[in-house]
Amino acid sequence: MTIQQLLQLAIERNASDLHLLAKYKPMLRINGDLVSVAQAPVLTNELIESLVVPLTNPIQKDILIKEWDLDLGLEFEDKARFRVNLYRQRGSLAAAMRLIPKQIRNLEETGLPPVISKLTELRQGFVLVTGPTGHGKSTTLAAFINKINQTRGAHIVTIEDPVEYVYPEGRSIISQRELNTDTKSWDNALKSALREDPDVVLIGEMRDLETIATAITVAETGHLVFATLHTNSAAQTLDRIIDVFPANQQPQIRVQLAAVLEAVISQRLIPTISPGRALAAEVLFSSPALRAIIREGKTHLIDNLIQTSAEAGMVSLEMSLMLLAKEGIISIETAQEYSLRPSVFNKLMGGGALK
């Protein structure tokens, strides 16, 4: 099979990912599960190289040869984009290819609470979308950016590795910068962004101390910043940001973060009873109580703050799971499996959950 046939099959079967590994048949991830492409041959290193190396340009090919790892964005005809990661395993080349739909979802279609849309009206601040890999962070960020794009005239600068969603024409202008294609480093791109007259900055991933520090600085200087982290909850997100700094800098970082943070959305895609996945999300909004918690280093109080602030639009992961379970979208067993605090989930279910 050609790479074009495999990509087409991924689209037709509504797969989220295509995996190519030597000694396996091509694998598709469909509704969270991996299934093999039955009609395809078992892959060899030589076959994988013939499939994916032609997708790279000379610069990308050189990076792959030197670094053994490469991220790139792939436009597949006019049907979809793919985020491609090329890597080596057991001495051979492998590929993980994430399907990026052409159509950008509206915020209302993501499954997030409607109150979330107010974040697109902000003129400055720091909004974090977190969760494990493959749980819809890029889709949520794209929905935020496209809502701004369609509703106000702004300069939006995105820094991505690689560029994923491509935005339609709207009221804004959007500068999309891709690592190793448009910029040589995250740090350089972020520092440069301040000289590009941005209103909104999207950071594909905050990877290290320098990226996090610069992102906070960009938010402090009067810009709206959206970014992602691979964390499991709002409290863990704030701990991760603060802990990446040396101990002597952490008090100052807590003060800065407390001043700029507007929201943390920690999300999961949960397998549904009928084939598919539904979004569950923990939502933390800024408030005087949250700012005090961050400044004082009492992030262990955040879970309780979320549970007692429903009137402010905050939602715990357990509350989100409970609503999906009571609507019959996901099973109680699945909800418990994904819950961070099963005892809280059981209480919310009124004792109807498994013991």
Automatic annotation (TrEMBL):
Pfam assignment, any one = T2SSE
In this chain the Bacterial type II secretion system protein E domain maps to: 194-208
UniProt-listed CDD domains: PilT
Q: Which InterPro entries match?
A: AAA+_ATPase (IPR003593), P-loop_NTPase (IPR027417), PilT/PilU (IPR006321), T2SS/T4SS_dom (IPR001482), T4SS_GSP_E_ATPase (IPR050921)
TM annotation in the entry = none
Q: Which GO terms describe its molecular function?
A: ATP binding; ATP hydrolysis activity
The organism sits in which domain of life?
A: Bacteria
NCBIfam families on file: pilT_fam
- Family stated for the protein in its record: Belongs to the GSP E family.
Q: Write down what this protein is called.
A: Twitching motility protein
Instruction: Tell me which species this is from.
Output: Candidatus Daviesbacteria bacterium GW2011_GWA1_36_8
